[in-house]
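Subject: for your reference before the review

Hello V.,

The reviewers asked for a structural picture of the protein, and I figured it would be easier to keep everything in one thread rather than splitting it across files. Below is the amino acid sequence we used in the manuscript, unchanged from the supplementary table.
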Amino acid sequence: MLSFYIIIPAHNEEAYLSKTLQSLCEQTLLPKRLVVVNDHSTDGTQHIIDQFSEQYSFVSGITIHSEDEHVPGAKVVRAFYRGKELLDDDYDVICKFDADLEFPTNYLEVVAGTFLRNSGCGLAGGFCYIEHNGDWVLEGLTNTDHIRGALKAYKKECFEQIGGLKPSMGWDTVDELLARYHGWQVQTIESLHVKHLKPTGATYSKASGFKQGQAFGKMRYGFVLTAIASIKLASRKRSLAYFWHCLRGFFSIKKDHLVSTTEGQFIRQLRWRGIRKKIF
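And here is what came back from the structure prediction:
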């Protein structure tokens, strides 16, 4: 069976981390290593990490003190890599999980089976569900062919070929686009329902719109695709201003792209195919 390394960035996750770790420590296929990166928490996060590392030999933690400013994407990816520094390369699958999830007990086993049955699959994952009026319903923030950044699982060869995770907003989109560019498949698994204990906020901020637009620019979306994607996001957030801030962010990018010119061309073609498929 495949061996899993899991890295969980955590900042002030005292309310949820115990359930996340307990669900991963009760898996039918246990991870080989699990590292929790405590990023400057001021609550009881470290105490929970210590409890689990004492009880389970494969659990460990590291404390870091990153900048106070929240930089979407970059901060969590840098925390991920601080955790990866504690690990060797003797793994088959590496996962970046959030600290506010509760996984079904067969999660890793089903993901492993997906990779084993399909040698061309480079990324796999389930879906986040949130509690609504006593029921757990799909958290419909993204398309069903996209794996949320909260629960990414990468086959080692794919992770290395795409150059790992990019420390920028949009990292959890560009990873899948680059995987497809290199011929890998991205597979969502409908049967895996993961409880998202702290649902993603829908609040608008000027900075987040600007950063999202920058992400589109860094991925070389081009103006038309950026406008379409920005309209979609602005509609979800019910904020026309978000659309304009996305465009401002897009036009601010002149360099520092996350992908090459050739990769950008592939990404645009892939996105247009997806749009035509939805329309026709």
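For the response letter, the relevant points are probably these. The chain has a mean pLDDT of 92. The longest helix spans residues 261-279.

Happy to draft the paragraph if you're swamped.

O.
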